[in-house]
Amino acid sequence: MSTTNPTQITACVLFFVFIFYFMARKQYLVSAICAVAFASYVAMNMDVGILYGKDQQQKDYVARYVDWSITTPLLLLTLLRACRIQNPSVYVLVLTLDVMMIYMGYLGATTDHTEKRDAFFGVSCVFYVVLFALVFWWCAKIHLGLCFFLFFAWMVYPVLWYLHREPDPRPYLSNDKYNACVAALDVFSKVGYGMLLPL
């Protein structure tokens, strides 16, 4: 494994440990979330699937977006289940909005055209706002704390994403700082949420 980013390696180890921790607590969905994140960080630490932004400066990973496209729907699934939502259409709508949010971010990360990148970023943010408006509508009366936890934790991701790409040609966050911040946030938003989730 690469040793260029100790925070990513630490995240990899933590996710591996928490796979078994949440299994022991019989929180199998959260354990699965940690397993996906662990696999993602193994790939990133081995520099597999690198995405380069404008002028080959900004560095991101395909594995990160694959991770988010699996783990964020699972996080929302646990929330909807905890709130005893039974309408299948609610699950389909919420999870679709979530996947589209991630997909727009991925498309933004794969283009080196500034205007297109910003457009994808903006559309992703719209999906985020609509998604959480619905989440609060359906879940806030039962688990307001969990709703706010995900809302504010996930709000930091697009801020980091944008700071990693703006301004050109020297963004506010270097690759190392961006990847370290996202790794720490991943552990907080996944493991921290799992700790708060009722057994």
Structure description:
The chain has helices at residues 6-24, 28-45, 62-82, 88-110, 114-163, 175-196; strands at 50-52, 59-61. The protein has 199 residues and is mainly alpha-helical. The protein has one domain: Rhopdopsin 7-helix transmembrane proteins (Up-down Bundle), CATH 1.20.1070.10. The chain has a two-stranded antiparallel ribbon with strand order 1-2. A hairpin with a 6-residue loop joins β1 (50-52) and β2 (59-61). The longest helix has 50 residues, at 114-163. The protein starts with 5 loop residues before the first helix and ends with a helix.
Task: Give the helix/strand layout.
Blueprint: H1 6-24, H2 28-45, E1 50-52, E2 59-61, H3 62-82, H4 88-110, H5 114-163, H6 175-196
Antiparallel strand pairs: 1-2
CATH architecture: Up-down Bundle
Distance between the termini: 35 Å
- Rg result: 17 Å
What is the CATH domain class? Answer: Mainly Alpha
The share of residues in helices is over 70%
Mind describing the biggest β-sheet?
A: 2 strands, antiparallel
- Strand order in the largest sheet: 1-2
Oligomer category: single chain
* CATH level-3 fold name: Rhopdopsin 7-helix transmembrane proteins
Task: State mean pLDDT (0 to 100 scale).
Answer: 92
How many distinct folded domains?
1
CATH superfamily (homologous) name? Rhodopsin 7-helix transmembrane proteins
- Rough outline: globular
- How many beta-strand segments? 2
Q: Count of helices?
A: 6
Order of helices and strands: HHEEHHHH
Report the uncertain regions.
none
- Structural category: mainly alpha
Q: How much beta, percentage-wise? A: under 5%
